[in-house]
Amino acid sequence: MGLTTVIPLLISLIPMIWADRAALKLKANAVRWGLFLSILAGGVIAYLRFRELRYLPFDWDDNAYASIVWTLCGMHLMHIVVATCENIVMFAWAVVHSLDKKHARDVRVNAVYWYWVVGIWVPLFCIIYVGPRI
């Protein structure tokens, strides 16, 4: 089940990189589209992570390993939701206002946060799903 979240997370980097690079060049329309696609991806990923929690083969209070897995997945879900909400705010700003250097920098900061959200899941995935099977 964990792999169904890794692949969309990696794919979600594409629109965020697009928005990040467009923000560097102050291309407002490309930033809007990149953020819009990132918001859609974030929603899908949050949904998949929520379903993943429901289908874990153990409850959070079964043992120490179960508690750690639930905590890591839950915290990562929280980061996905927060990053997506930040993208919604930046998208709303980009739609209503023009893109200036300050807000282009904010888009870039959101992009770095999304890169972290995606990047941190790779070692966590290995720890949670691959490690116990080795």
Brief summary of the model shown:
With 134 residues, the chain is mainly α. The chain has five helices and no strands. The protein has helices spanning 3-11, 13-24, 28-54, 64-96, 101-130.
Question: Notable features of this structure?
Answer:
134 residues, mainly alpha, Four Helix Bundle (Hemerythrin (Met), subunit A), 0% strand
Description:
83% of the residues lie in helices and 0% in strands. It is an all-alpha fold. The protein has one domain (3-133): Up-down Bundle (Four Helix Bundle (Hemerythrin (Met), subunit A)). The radius of gyration is 16 Å and the shape is elongated.
Tell me the layout of helices and strands.
Blueprint: H1 3-11, H2 13-24, H3 28-54, H4 64-96, H5 101-130
Instruction: Work out the radius of gyration.
Output: 16 Å
Helix run count: 5
Overall geometric form: elongated
Q: Helix coverage percent of residues?
A: over 70%
Write the CATH architecture name.
Up-down Bundle
Q: Major beta sheet, specifics?
A: none
Q: Beta-strand level of the residues, as a percent range? A: under 5%
* N- to C-terminal distance: 17 Å
Q: What is the name of the CATH class? A: Mainly Alpha
Helix-strand category: mainly alpha
As residue ranges, the low-confidence spans are none
- N-to-C SSE string, H for helix and E for strand: HHHHH
> How many domains comprise the coordinates?
1
